[in-house]
Amino acid sequence: MAVQKALESAKKRNFTETVELAINLVDVDLTIPKNRIQEDIILPNGRGKSVKICVIGGGELALKAKDVADLVITPDELGAIADDKKQAKKIANSTTYFIAEAPLMAQVGKRLGTVLGPRGKMPKPIAPGADPAPMIDGLRKSVSIRTKDRKTFHAPVGSVDMSAEDIADNIELILKRVESKLEKGRHNIASAYVKTTMGPSERIL
Fold first, then answer.
1. How far apart are CA 57 and CA 59, in angstroms?
2. 9 vs 142: CA distance, rounded Å
């Protein structure tokens, strides 16, 4: 089993390595936007590592998000962060997912779109005053898949602390979702490999 082999061949490190899936596509023209894949997938067994989530909102939403999000940015703070490009980039790089109060979406797009857009991290909208906890729970177990214009793309599928079976289940779900987005399904996947952050890769497909 490729996952088992990848885990066994990974040397012990002083940090928890991520397990990654690399998928190589074939016969897909990614210059055509409709052929590109951008999906958030909730993994059945989670990522095995913590993910940072930022909520952009005020009032009731900000209060509710305080205990469940890693970072809360109020509408007042948004401008200052957007004006400080260095800080905006730092937040964008260290945060996995952004959630924004629906009425603020346009403002966030205008002020932070140039930083978040290219990273595929534009926020997901939430209704004002809604409880962000269920959405945050889902995102903590999610991975984002983006092909952009490259035929090879990667996705985290777990960590070395997880069992090979749990990681294999996560991989299976991702492959199914990717196939469902491709015109010829599995025939558009040339190969797939699994590896730990610094370990050798093992072929799955």
1. 7
2. 26
Place of tokens 């196939």: 179
Number of H helices, E strands in the chain: 7, 10
Please tell me the number of Cα atoms within 13 Å of 87 on its side-chain side: 9
> Model confidence over 140-178: pLDDT tens digits?
999 999 998 899 999 999 999 999 999 999 999 999 999
Encoded tokens for 89 = 């980039």
Please report the domains of the chain, with CATH numbers, ordered by start residue. 2-47+143-203 (3.30.190.20), 53-139 (3.40.50.790)
| Two tokens, residue 67 | 């205990």
CB atoms within 10 A of CB 117: 12
C-alpha 113/C-alpha 48 separation (Å) is: 29
Summarised one tens digit per residue, pLDDT across range 58-85 is: 999 999 999 999 999 999 999 999 999 9
Contact 99, 132 (CB under 8 A): yes
**Tokens at 182, concatenated:** 């491709």
Tell whether pTM > 0.85.
Answer: yes
- The token pair at 189 is 């996947």
